[in-house]
Amino acid sequence: MTNIESTRYTNVCRVAVFIPLRQSFDYLIPDHFHRYSIQPGIRVLVPFGRQNKIGVITHSKIHSSVNRKRLKCIKTVIDGKPLFNHSDLHLIEWAARYYHHPIGDVMSSALPGLLRKNRAAELPAETILCLTPQGEAISLDSLKRAPRQQELIKYLQATPARLSSTKALNKSGIQWRGCLSPLIKKGLVIQEKQIPDCESSSTVSSLPLSLTTAQQQAVDTLLENTHQFGVFLLDGVTGSGKTEVYMQLIQKVLNQQKQVLVLLPEIALTPQLEERFRARFPVSIGLYHSGLTEKDRCTHWLQFQQGITSILLGTRSATFIPMSQPGLIIMDEEHDPSFKQQEGFRFSARNVAIRRAQLLNIPILLGTATPAIETLHNAQTKRYQHLKLPARAGNSVLPKLKLLDIRNLTMHSGLSEALIQHIDKTLSQNEQVMLFINRRGYAPAYMCHQCGWVARCPRCDANAVVHIDQQRLWCHHCGSNSGLPKKCPACHGIKLEALGVGTERVEKFLQQRFANARTARFDRDSIPSKSTLDTLLSAVQNDEIDILIGTQMLAKGHHFPNVTLVCILDTDQGLFSTDFRAAERLAQMVIQVAGRAGRAEKFGQVILQTRQPDHPLLLTLINHGYSRFAVNTIQERVQAHLPPLSYQALFRTKSTNQASGLHLLQQMRTELEKITDEILVLGPVPAPMEKLAGQYRYQLLLQSSQRKALHHCLNRIIPYISTLKISKLVRWSVDIDPIDLY
Ligand code: ADP
Ligand code: ZN
Ligand code: ZN
């Protein structure tokens, strides 16, 4: 009976509603809707509970298993044309399944903020004033008595297309508003709306370079495969000319009238790449990152979706942007952890981009000097093609890495005397110095000399960090802060001491020691915005800065021709972490940082301060480079059954009540033991920082050597969680392929 019921009615569609539930919902299509107005990829307004919600149709004609009487009707159709095509929707559904994340949330994160609301998906149009044939023919003399009308007609008659946007008229100072309606009445002028063309550079100033043999090989291999899916790892040392390879490939794809999506880890890297692309390609280039206004994001999204822009440069949020003529996807600095979203919809942009290229049947190029261990493993097992650029292009040579043993040395704000000598020498040659320390602020601890009291964050399991300029204590985890006490709150003693070193302290010391040198600090405190960063970066380019001090922020991609000395002050920090990926991160950091040195003709050197001069990781890296390090690391992971040789999912809980999260995970564990014995279940354990921002955090790790088995198990355990009463008191999340076990 139900079968007959459901087959008789095909006017039902399935909608991914923008709500945090792990399912889609079926809705009736009212008879008065035109059948063609209901297509997959179109946004609709639907009743949900007592509210109306927005969603996207994923399937237009389905046989619903829901009793027809319980189905509600679609309220409004928002779009005239689908925003997502079949392949886009396929990707979104796949991502929701793979990451076990609510499909409505995946769908809405694939849209720009403005289109998550009930707003038309229209490109902003501008008003155009246009001469009619009479307007073109009229003699200016006949308008003598209306000087303003005369002026407007004269202006329009002088333009090549006999029209002008009102924006341009405003700029020219012509008073057009008052005289428009009489001119329209006389039939001399008409007013129209028009979508403005994208700006593109009309002059090309950078010509393709003649490629090195290795570059040419990389380009040729890819060109043989432009018409089908394939993953290519462009493994090129820093400064080997990966960007030139990208550009020559992009040119070929543009010649085929197709589009290129270029993904970058950080907004900060977009300006220089954008500049290089604009100098090379006379086409319109779109941008998509969080530094744009909502309106601009929406415009760039629509322009790429409609094929108006040919190249799109974006951060991980651009991974899902629809392409009308897909040709190629490029992911630069593919190893960068910023490609993984760490909250909400926790997806890996690399993983999604690869799946996307597969669905679109186009190639994807992953570029980096320090491939992720996962990626290298895929290259070794021939799932990806491995393209290598082993040497720097042009005249620069790779810098030399050196360990500086600081055991038993007196340190001055984190710097050894030997290092200070190197800095001195570099400055005296009018070259620039770059110092890295992975901690901002003045000092990571504030302690009473008399009683041992240490300033802690009241809401986290963490020390408060001293910031001297502000005279405040800050928690770097939850942002709570307070004034720097002058007296010990415990014993009222006045001997309070800042312990350890951060960027602020290093800068203060260097300003004292090298009073004539100009310093600049690059961290989140000193660089509040992208424009400050841009200003500072160009000051470095113009040699207005001598010493750069920074956190990771400085490590990525930048090109500083006059930096010849790079120092890592706190190398050892990465050697003793509990996270199995810490070594990989350290190695990548060292090589990337080193890549900033000696990028022009001048020879560069890199100094790593360490108290572990015999540490095998450091020795391998220094003497044999990243690839040897990576080969060793893969072997270690094989032996320890760690990713990429196994697959993980991490459940995290947060709750104000300390016990609730733990209980939830314990109940899950019990259930998991009933469901399967194929999965390794580790925990529950407290998160490395158990208390954060007043919430208690626990985690449960699932691991399997079979991805399928893991996902099968997740499909059963996730629905089980919502049946638990305690789940109402706990916020929980699941992270597939976690890259940080915090
Ligand atoms: P990567 O992206 O690999 O770090 P870049 O593309 O920034 O390297 O190139 C580093 C420098 O080498 C740039 O100044 C670039 O113009 C130059 N370069 C790249 N390819 C060549 C080439 N084939 N011949 C000469 N110079 C090149
Ligand atoms: Zn005290
Ligand atoms: Zn805190």
Q: What can you see in these coordinates?
A:
With 742 residues, the chain is of the alpha/beta class. It folds into five domains: 3-116, GIY-YIG endonuclease (3-Layer(aba) Sandwich); 126-194; 213-389, 3-Layer(aba) Sandwich (Rossmann fold); 400-439 and 501-629, Rossmann fold (3-Layer(aba) Sandwich); 647-736, Alpha-Beta Plaits, CATH 3.30.70.360. The strands form eight sheets. The protein has a seven-stranded parallel sheet with strand order 12-13-11-14-15-10-16, sandwiched between helices. Strands 5-2-1-4-3-6 form a six-stranded mixed sheet. A hairpin with a 2-residue loop joins strand 31 (680-692) and strand 32. The protein is globular. The relative contact order is 0.08. The model is unreliable at 1-8 (pLDDT under 50). It binds adenosine-5'-diphosphate and zinc ion (2 copies). One zinc ion is lined by residues 448, 450-451, 453, 488, 490-491, 493. One zinc ion binds at residues 457, 459-460, 462, 475, 477-478, 480, 693.
CATH H-level name of the largest domain... which superfamily?
P-loop containing nucleotide triphosphate hydrolases
Number of helices: 20
User: How helical, in percent, are the residues?
Assistant: 25-40%
**Structural class designation:** alpha/beta
> What integer value in Å does the Rg equal?
30 Å
Strand order in the largest sheet: 12-13-11-14-15-10-16
Classify the beta-strand content into a percent band. 15-25%
CATH topology (level 3) name of the largest domain: Rossmann fold
Largest sheet: 7 strands, parallel
CATH-defined architecture of the largest domain: 3-Layer(aba) Sandwich
Main CATH class of the largest domain: Alpha Beta
Spatial shape: globular
Low-confidence stretches: 1-8
Rounded to the nearest angstrom, the distance between the terminal CA atoms is: 52 Å
The number of domains is: 5
The overall strand count is 33
Q: What's the mean pLDDT score?
A: 90
Bound molecules: adenosine-5'-diphosphate, zinc ion
